[in-house]
Amino acid sequence: MLTPRRVSQVLTAVAVLLVGLLGGIAPGQAAGVRTAAVDPANDPCYVLIQVSPGVFEYVNICPDPDEEGDGGDGGGGGNGPRCDLTEEPYDEFCLGTKACRADIPSPLPEDQWPAEETRPGPDHIFTFVQCRVPGQEELYARWRWIEPYEDALPGLGWQALGRLQTPAFTMSFQPAGLTYVGAETRFMLDGLGDGEIIGSVAGPLQATGTLSHVEIDPADGSDVIDCDPDLRSRACQHVYLEMSHEQTAEDFDGRPGFAAQARLVYDVTFTMGGVELVLPGVPDTLESPWNGTVVPVGEIQALVRTR
Amino acid sequence: MNGSFPRTGWRFTVGLVSIAVVAACSGDDDTGDPASPTPTATVTQDAAAQAEEQIRTVFDDFIVAVVEAQSGRADDLAGLFEGLATDETTELNVGIASRYADQGIVRVGEPVISDVNVQVVDRSGVVSACMDESGWAPQLTTGETIPPAEELSTPHPVVYEVVESGGSWLIGDPIEPGGTITC
Is residue A232 in some structural domain? Predict the structure, then answer.
């Protein structure tokens, strides 16, 4: 986690250095005939992005002159807002003297963002920004790298949450194939991994899920059981009190049974730069989809008779 | 690549013409048989051919509108797409063009469109084409040219939904070409 960031910081530094060098060289070339075509080609401000499938847009991603000195390099000026954040919806953050709002999370998938070396810092996201410019009627609308302001974090939290994938698991029970009225039926789940799921990064945020417990619905009308399939003390066990011959669900052998199902419940934590955050309004648990198996329940006496 | 008539489209049209010719001939022979199914088939094929032709025209006009919008010469950006594109697609293109205007970017020249292909099912369809943007360069107000990005300087696929609205066809949402179209 830290190492790629360092690498990207180093890359950014190298890019900045190169830009400086090129900027120094450019005036020397200015007398040349080919300058007109050469100069902007090396201009790291202009990038190409795909705004819609097959539809491209050239974008100037460099900060405007009015933004000089405030966070253009992710530094943060720290001398209070320099813009008027009183008019909705352009009340989220300042870009220089511009009062802005941004689409968060970004409407552009991350693999369509400009090259990593154009990213001012690891916490920046590339998104669509609209701003009010003082003394100007028209809105400023641009695709830009921005550092999500604090209030935007819950929006990113939802995105990070959406990137957590619960594992596909299978459910079985013992006694295998057929259980009996009054017997302890134990449910087992396969495919849970080590119980930890890690989502891909959403902007500066990452969500991690830790398996809290399993919910089992035995499907005989009794309550859902909270349990842990690996712990003997909280084993996923249930005692069926009636036979299943009237059930409509059938197992692979065509025997009617209870359509028992289970889902996994995870505790979710969010981290930004390795630091854990609490995000108001964003759920801190995640449930997997339900997945089940058919449990035929017979009576031992009845079985003896039929044999 | 240089002609605007794609091979598949051409073959399709040839097929249609053959059907029409056969239908016309059999029509002459069986003038007294109104129950003959051939005339109905001809009408359907004609309608499809007509729709395809309309869509090709709308697509050509749409590309002209996109080029005009990004040229920096147009005052009424939305007006350029009137009768050619859905509201969403108009908005997408007006957005790009007005951001260009805002950043002092104009695009000079025009893209080369080839291999236009139209598929219509009932009242909706898809138009696809290959687009080469090497001759459609972004230029700054200073007169400097930003060389078109490499991936746009060779023919690349563009695909749009087309929808029928009030008897005419409009260019709808762009669609991910995926691996289905090669240019």
Answer: yes
